[in-house]
């Protein structure tokens, strides 16, 4: 533990020096002084909390930033963006009638039928109407964005970057403008559902790839899959593809404290409670370890909360397993828990992921993680180094065995794994490093 604390102190010193250099170095002049970011919620309502560190960094390097929230709710602002950021809320009610009419008209356009032919070739006739409705939602959703850009962005303005935070409808909206001759630079991030083509149909991948300037994938796995899947359809894309990991700042400069209680083992998970996150697998795995004194705490909420709560109560009745569902807490409260409460292991059993931001958070406090080899999970967990990486098809029995094996490790092994977890965050997911590289890339 002493070694880990020394490492943290060195990292704190590094961050202080790094910040000083970044604030005082002579930046290469860029023609891009203005940035416009299209989010789903941020800074309103829950979601996209991981964007906060990024926008704080970008705000230091652009003169003016507009944050355009597509799902704004002015009564639920979570954070205050930097002073040079202007927040624009595109209330769907304001644009609904006009957007619906235009979306209906577009459903019978050559663009739609061309996209449906592509989807049929790739996916067959299954879920035909689901794909049809997804295309309609893209038209409807991007309609508000299109109206705003036409009103606020000059066609020949080549000194502004328009940035879609997701590779979804707003990325498609930017692609349409680029196709029509707009001179702004158009970029997008790609995360999980919007990046992996095997996670459900997302329309207009070809058009986005063909017309955007850059696409930044948070996982290299997603980038490779995207490129391979579309190679035959878009032989000469305009978009340059990058792997640009997200990052976070350990604002407390603290690590997770050691436990003085050798009779209890604490496990934490953090995610939305939805099917793909497979919280049921955690419950079933812990049910196999019912004779052991384990405390499991889950952060997050969702539509499956009540059913999984009932499942947990039934599974853990008359066992040594204690558990709690904490609900949708602020990021600050969760990080405070990581700072102050001893945690032995973080667990994620999702069926698919980009690179889980929740594991970045855990690693930044020196907490090892367990996960299955899905999506970009192998880019953040190295088996036996900073955690446990199970095969992608591992079931709850394998998860239970992995937890048991972890509990049997020596103090020396656990200490080294915690040290490696912290180092993994610092080397690969430190916001100061990752967002500096991202900024230098997008202004080229």
Can you walk me through this structure?
The protein has 444 residues and is α/β, with parallel strands linked by helices. It has two domains: 20-247 and 431-442, Glycogen Phosphorylase B (Rossmann fold, 3-Layer(aba) Sandwich), CATH 3.40.50.2000; 265-428, Rossmann fold (3-Layer(aba) Sandwich). It is built from 15 helices and 13 strands. The protein has helices spanning 2-24, 51-59, 92-106, 110-123, 128-152, 169-179, 205-211, 220-230, 279-287, 305-316, 331-340, 357-364, 396-407, 411-428, 431-442; strands at residues 34-39, 64-69, 85-89, 160-164, 185-190, 214-217, 240-243, 265-270, 294-299, 321-325, 345-348, 369-372, 387-390. The strands form two sheets. The protein has a seven-stranded parallel β-sheet. A six-stranded parallel β-sheet has the order 10-9-8-11-12-13, with helices on both faces. Helix 7 (205-211) links the parallel strand 5 (185-190) and strand 6 (214-217). Helix 1 (2-24) runs parallel beside helix 14 (411-428), helix 2 packs across helix 15 and helix 12 crosses helix 14 (411-428). It starts with a helix and ends with a helix.
Notable traits:
single chain; 444 residues; alpha/beta; Rossmann fold; seven-stranded parallel sheet; six-stranded parallel sheet
How many beta-strand runs? 13
Mean pLDDT: 89
Number of domains: 2
Count, helices: 15
First-residue to last-residue Cα separation: 43 Å
What low-confidence regions span 5 or more consecutive residues with pLDDT below 50?
Answer: 20-26
- In percent terms, what proportion of residues is strand? 5-15%
Report the principal-axis shape. Answer: globular
**Which class of secondary structure composition applies to the elements?**
alpha/beta
Q: What is the CATH architecture annotation of the largest domain?
A: 3-Layer(aba) Sandwich
- Biggest β-sheet description: 7 strands, parallel
Main-sheet strand order equals 3-2-1-4-5-6-7
Full CATH superfamily name of the largest domain? Glycogen Phosphorylase B
Element-by-element helix/strand order: HEHEEHHHEHEHEHEEHEHEHEHEEHHH
What fold name stands as the CATH topology of the largest domain?
Answer: Rossmann fold
